[in-house]
Design goal:
35% of the residues lie in helices and 31% in strands. By secondary structure, it is α+β, with helices and mostly antiparallel strands. The protein has a single domain (2-175), classed as 3-Layer(aba) Sandwich (Aminopeptidase). It is globular, with a radius of gyration of 15 Å.
Amino acid sequence: MELKKATDEELGFIKTLYFRAFPSQERKPFTLIRRQRAKGLLEVWTASDGGVPVGFAITAVSDSLVLLDYLAVSDAHRSKGLGSSILRALAEIYGDTPIFLEIEKPDIHAKNQSERLARKAFYLRNGYREAGINVLLWGVKMEILTTADSLTFAECDRIYDRIYGTRHSQIIRELHL
């Protein structure tokens, strides 16, 4: 598996997979991703296997923290260790800079509870840990996982502010559960 910065030509593959992999309430407009990429606020990565695009990652980087905003592997290539390979490649790229991400908070009443638990187990197996931070993001209750030994919402909020600007408090806020 090779992970490299996405070319403009690869954005079509990424957009298609993005719309398949993420529910509408968790997706930001893809035009926003394109704009933020053009401004240098987001990095878009293509994962390829044998020269064939099989997945992607989207990250936002600050001086001291990386947000893994989205990670997806195409259905035909799942369960082959590619997601773990992408996480290892990102860890190499960003070195000692801690990475954090949001996942849907497990909820026994959720229709996709088994998916939520499997997703969390995947990240925990790959070296992430619970940060003890819950957020409401785009109206969805999310839990933050991180590679950092400790993390505060204020640290995460600095990246959200960088990405979304003054309206970030309308998009994301900390939940005290």
